C-alpha cells in the first residue's frame, strides 16, 4: 500500500495539473488567471486577501448583482476540482520561516505549507464545520438571548406593577445589568484564554441559567436588582469568548457572514420568545404564580440543558475533537490538515498562542493601549445609542398605546424580521464591496430620518402611524457582527484580539448604559427630549465613521509608501529583525 506521504504527493501533483487546466479555462473565458489569483507576497500576512479598497471596489460593485455579466462570469469560473489553497507568506521560502507555528501551538502537528486541496474538499469541510461548530454556537446564543431578553416580555405581563417597581427602577436594573456585564467582559475573556473557551463557555451558561430560573422567586426591588447584577456578571464575556472560539475554525473572510448568522439567533430568539411568551404568560394564576414567573423558570431551565450539553459538544480546537464519548472525533486527518493550513494561510498570527495560554498584565496593558483599535472602540461605544432606547421601550410604548399583552408581544415580531433580514444583507454587502465603514454607517443613515419623524409625532398621532415608524426604527440593520469581525481583522494577533474583543464589547455595553437612561419618566410618553438627543448622536456617529475611514486609509497609504520604497532585501531584513508586533508592523494594512 502507498504511504500517506506518497498519497499526498500524488494528490499535490494532481492538483498542480488541475491548476494548469484552470488557467487555460480562464484564458478561454477572457479572464487573466494571474489577475484572478494574486501572487504570494510577504506583505501584510495577517491581511492576505484584503485588497486595497480603491482598486477593488469597482470590481466588486460590478458583480454585486447576481444577474450581472461579471457575476455570471465569476460563477462560470468555479471548478470544484480546482485548487482552493490561497497564496500566503508560506509560499515564499524567505518569509515562511518567520511565520512557522511554534511547537507549543496545539495544531502544529497538522501544519504543512505544501498541503493543497480542492474547492470541493474545502466546501465540504466548511459545511461540516458549520454543522458541528457554528450550529451549536447559534443555539447557545439563542439560549443567551432567551434569558437576556425575556424581561421585555415580562414587562408586558405587568412585572413592574406586581413587584411595585417604577420606570426608573427598571432603568436602574438595566443599568446595573449592563455595568456588571461590562465589568465581567475582560476577566471572562482572560479566564477563557487560560482554561479554554470549550470549558469556560459551558460553565458560564450553567451559572447564569441558575440565576435566570431563580427569578421565579423575585419578591421586590432588592431581589430584582440583585438578579440583574448576577445575570450581568455571569453572562459578561460570553460573546467575545464564542467569537474567539469560532476564529479557530474560520478564515477572516468567512467569519463576518457567520457572525451575522450568529447574531441572527438574537432575532430568531426574539421571534420564538414572542410566541412562547404569548402562551406561557397565559399561565398567570397557575400554582398562584404570575405568568412572568413561569416565563423566567421555563426559559432558564432550557438554558441550563443547553449549557450542560455544551460540555460534550464543544471540542477545544480543529485537531482536538476526539474524546471518551467521541473516540473517532469529527474530522479525519486530511480534514484536520486542510482546516489548520487554510486558517494559518489566511492569518499566520493565529498560531502565536496556544488555545489554553493566558496573558500577563503587561500584555493586557499593551493591548488596551493599541491606538490602532481606538476608532473601532469609539464607534462601538456610540453606534447603538440612536436605536437603543426605542428598542428597549418597544413593549412599554405599545402597551401605553392601548395594545393588550398578547397584541404587544405579537407586534414586536415585524421589527425582528426586518432587523434580521437587514443584518444579513449588510454582512453580505460588507464582503462584496470589501468595506467595513460603508456597510456599518448604514445603521445611522437608516435611523436618522426615522428619528426625525418620531420627534415630530404628538398626542394626536395615530397609534398605527407610531407603530409603523417605531417598528422601522427597531428593525434597524444590526451592524455589530460586522464591527466585531472588523475589530478582529484590525487586531493583528491573538494577544491583541483576545483583549480587544473584550474592550470592544465593554464599549458596546457602556453605550447601552448610556442609552438606557436617555428616555426618562418625566419625558414620557413621546420622549421628545430623548429623541432630540438621539438625532444629535446619530449625526455625530456619521462623522465618526467618516473619521475612521480616512484615519485607516491615511495610515495604509503612508505604510505603502515606506514599504514600496524599500528593496526586497530591505523588506526581508525588516521582517526578520523587527520588534514591531501585530498592527504596528509596516507590512500590516488596516481594513476599513
Automatic annotation (TrEMBL):
One GO location term (cellular component): membrane
Keyword Transport: yes
Annotated protein name in UniProt: MFS general substrate transporter
GO molecular function: transmembrane transporter activity
Keyword match Membrane: yes
Polar residues bias locations: 10-20
SUPFAM superfamilies in the cross-refs: MFS general substrate transporter
Chief subcellular location: membrane
Keywords from the named record: Membrane, Transmembrane, Transmembrane helix, Transport
Entries under PANTHER family matching the protein: MAJOR FACILITATOR SUPERFAMILY (MFS) PROFILE DOMAIN-CONTAINING PROTEIN-RELATED (PTHR43791:SF65), PERMEASE-RELATED (PTHR43791)
Membrane topology term: Multi-pass membrane protein
InterPro entries with a match to the protein in the record: MFS, MFS_trans_sf
Renumbered residue ranges of the record's region Disordered: 1-27
Compartments (UniProt record): Membrane
Segments passing through the bilayer: 225-248, 260-282, 294-314, 410-430, 437-457, 463-480, 501-518, 533-552
Native organism: Exidia glandulosa HHB12029
